[in-house]
C-alpha cells in the first residue's frame, strides 16, 4: 500500500509557493503521492486565502521527480471537457506520467456552486460529470471526435498530444457512502476515494468495516481485471494511527493522510509531512506504471 498526503488549497495552505515547498519536502520524506483539494473558496468566507491547484501542479511537477500528483477532487461539472483534457494531458507530460485525475461532484454545493450561479443539484452535476469523463477520455485517445451529448458537442480530428500514461491517466472517483451512484461510477473507472455520510462534519473517512462494505459493492460491479486503486484515509493527528494491514487486506492500494481543516496547527502537520509515512513500502517507482 502506497502512502499519500491530502492537502487543502486554502487557509494556511493558500500559497502556491508553500504548496510546492511542501511537495518537495514530502517527496524527500518518502511519500508516494501529494494530492491537493480543489475549492474556489472556503465556505462563505472570502477572507481566507485560496490557491488554484491546477496552476500549482505545474510548478510541483517541475520541482519533484517521483510522487504522483493530482486533484482530490476536481468537480468536472464546472469545467469544460476540452479545457480539462488539455490541462490533464499537459500535466501528465510535464510530470513524466505522474498525474492522477481525482474527480467527483464537489462539496459543499452552496459554497462552491450556488454563489457562482452554477447548478448545485447533485443529479445535474452527476450527469455533467459522466458526460464530461466520456468526452475527456475520448479526447485523450486521439480518436476522431463525434460527440453529441446533452451538454456538450465535439466534432473533428483527433486530439493531440495524448497523455504519457497508458491506457490513460488514471481516474479516481470520489463518493459519499451510502449513496450508490458514485460507487457504480467508480467501478467503471480506475479507482475509488470513499467517504461516509455522518459525523460531526457531516462525513467521515470509512472505518475498516465500512471500507469492507464499500469495497464489496464496488468489486461486485467491476468487469475485467484491469488495475484498480482504492483509497483508505485518515489523520494520525486527529484520529490516531490506523490499521494499515486491515485496509490493505480489503483491497486498499493507497493510504491517504488527510490534513484536516480546521484542525491541528500548520507546524504540527508539517512535522507529519517531514516525518514521512509510517510503515511505508519502498518508494514508488514510476516503472510500476506504463508511461
Can you put this structure into words, describing what you see?
This protein is an alpha/beta fold. It has a single domain (about 1-290), classed as TIM Barrel. It has 10 helices and 12 strands. Strands 1, 2, 3, 4, 5, 8, 9, 10, 11 and 12 form a 10-stranded mixed sheet that branches. A two-stranded antiparallel sheet has the order 6-7. Helix 1 (about 15-30) crosses helix 2, helix 1 runs parallel beside helix 10 and helix 6 (about 180-190) packs across helix 7 (about 210-220). The longest helix is centred in the middle third of the chain and has 20 residues, at about 120-140. The model is unreliable at about 280-290 (pLDDT under 50).
Evaluate the radius of gyration. Answer: 18 Å
Number of domains: 1
Secondary-structure element series: EHEHEEHEHHEEEHEEHEHHEH
In CATH, the topology is named TIM Barrel
Shape: globular
The main sheet comes to: 10 strands, mixed
* Residue share in β-strands: 15-25%
Give the termini separation: 21 Å
CATH class: Alpha Beta
Task: Break the fold down into its secondary structure elements and pairings.
Layout: E1 2-7, H1 16-29, E2 33-36, H2 53-63, E3 68-71, E4 74-75, H3 81-94, E5 101-104, H4 109-112, H5 122-141, E6 145-148, E7 153-156, E8 171-177, H6 181-188, E9 191-197, E10 203-204, H7 208-220, E11 229-234, H8 236-239, H9 244-249, E12 254-258, H10 266-275
